[in-house]
Design goal:
By secondary structure, the chain is an alpha/beta fold. It is built from seven helices and 13 strands. The protein has one domain: Alpha-Beta Complex (Spore Coat Polysaccharide Biosynthesis Protein SpsA, Chain A). Helix content is 26%, strand content 27%. The strands form two sheets. Strands 1, 2, 3, 4, 6, 7, 8, 9, 10, 11 and 12 form an eleven-stranded mixed beta sheet that branches. The protein has a two-stranded antiparallel ribbon with strand order 5-13. β2, α2 and β3 form a beta-alpha-beta unit.
Length: 301
Amino acid sequence: MKPTLLILAAGLGSRYGGLKQLDQIGPSGETLMDYSIFDAKRAGFGKVVFVIRKSFEEDFINHIFSKYIDFIEVDYVFQELDTLPEGYSVPPERIKPWGTGHAVLMAQTKIDCPFAVINADDFYGKDSFLAIASFLIALDEDNKNRYCLLAYKLKNTLSEHGTVSRGLCYLDKNDYLINIEEHTKISIEKNAIISIGKNNQKFDLSENAPVSMNLMGFTPSAFSYFKYYFNEFIENNKDSLKAELYLPEVVSKIIKSGSAKVRVLPSNEKWFGVTYKEDREIVVQNINEMINKGVYPNKLW
């Protein structure tokens, strides 16, 4: 069975200043999602499921969803604040989604095969999709609790225009994930990569440190873990206006519980995305360079 690609597209795009999932980056109006779906299809994926907010459903259908229908099987689900376990309600004045861990859980009814998760507004690269597709396609019933994660070199994931959040990956000697450590303020300072921690303490990070960009692969068995840890999260944060359950946090909990193993697949691709408005010009340049090299056609669809 061909794996499914799950695209997390429900973010509000607060730092970028708009609905960046629909921003036209390519020369023929392509979005970053277009390039991910193009890469996924040629890597062997057979279906795409989007997680979106209902508030932009009409724009999504008109500008995004409709153009894939003749290219690959597509579907979508909503991530809404009020999709909570029984007995819980949304805190007054909360507007933030419940996080990427919650977003993945929303797709449970649409996915019954191995699947990969990506962010809608990130570029991951052709080779990364080939690597994760190969891993997922090779899984059988005996490997239903084997997952994977594409790890990028930290130096290939930074923005020149501000701090970024990255999950540093710690591996055992067999390249299985031990833990993901979230760093929320990473930047380039005087040719060094700096992470700012609590009390504004600064420390250096290795440019080749493996980091997660939310390109991960799972089997349907993972949904039971996402449900369990989201229920736990809501119980602990039911009155919070800002707390979110992040995908790497769920993966770390799964590993520590011994429920599953996560194989780390290294990637030499250069990640890029539109974290800040100023990043957009660089993204457009990178896409055009790859078109000139023949990696992508001038017009995808």
